[in-house]
Amino acid sequence: MVLLLLVDLDPELKALDALGGFSVLRTGVPPRGPLPTLASAFADPGSEGPAEVYGDPMTFRVRRVARSLRTPEPRVAASVAQQGLAARFWSIALGAAALCGELPDLDPELLHWDPDAGAPDDLWLGEVRFRPVSDLDAVVRAGLLVPLSAALRSRHRVSPALLWGNAGSALAGTVRQLGRWALAHGRPDVGERARALAGPLLAHPDLAGTLDPGTLRRRSCCLYYRVPGGGVCGDCCFERPPRPTPGRS
Q1: pTM
Q2: What is the DSSP letter of 115?
């Protein structure tokens, strides 16, 4: 049995700073001015006129990732962008739950997003409210990952199995990162709590089967191997990059 030594989750969420940038969640007014909420970013942008496209945060983010990776394939950029956001959501929520025993309410209406920024300056919580750890699935999977998947699939040709594979991989990666932090800081209770909380999350039908239970290798591919100069990730289902299918873009 591991004794849980919980840290208070303060109103400005400063306790999360100790876990590192991916778990940090900013509060207050963003210095770059008003940002769209995730709820508005998830919404259907409507028509495809130039103003609407360039004003769509989700499209902006995918295009930014595509430029950074130098990939001409929107679905590859969409996959990488989604995995990065999934990792942020899990890191904040699971980090808070494991370290503090509660979590901030990450309602998409409260969470503001800068699609042109990286962690930890990409997400800003407009109002800090707390929810019990038992709401982890509702907050992250149902509240954030389901609408994120729908938003990306409405804009790009990307499969739901791939996106849920990304989400499962991001969750497993968060657990590993929290475990490393726990060992480095003499807090085995944090790592143990993170592993215990992740089990039921991975058992949900959306995430069940995304990872091999013995090795935690994923059963789908995020498509990173299709990035110029890219390869396979450490938990990829492939041992080596597959050969391109003739005529497949």
Answers
A1: 0.90
A2: T
Map residue 103 onto helix, strand or coil: strand
**Residue among 72, 112, 55, 49 nearest 227 (CA):** 72
Judged by DSSP in three states, 41 sits in: helix
DSSP lists the bridge partners of residue 218 as 211
Indicate the residue type of 49: G
Q: How many CB atoms lie within 10 A of CB 198?
A: 22
In sequence order, the β-bridge partners of residue 112 are 37, 124
Determine the distance from the C-alpha atom of residue 217 to the mean position of all C-alpha atoms in its chain, rounded to a whole number. Answer: 18
Distances (CA, A) of 34 to 10, 64, 108, 112: 24, 20, 15, 9
Decide: 62 and 81 in contact? Cβ < 8 Å. Answer: yes
Collapsed DSSP state (helix, strand, coil) of residue 164: helix
The three-state secondary structure class of 206 is: coil
Q: How does pLDDT run along the chain (249 residues), one tens digit per residue?
A: 445 578 889 989 999 999 998 999 999 888 888 899 999 999 977 644 444 444 799 999 999 999 999 999 999 999 999 999 999 999 999 999 999 999 999 999 999 999 999 999 999 999 999 999 999 999 999 999 999 999 999 999 899 999 999 999 999 999 999 999 999 999 999 999 999 999 999 999 999 998 888 777 777 877 767 878 777 676 666 666 676 554 444
| Cis, peptide link before residue 120, omega less than 30° from 0 | yes
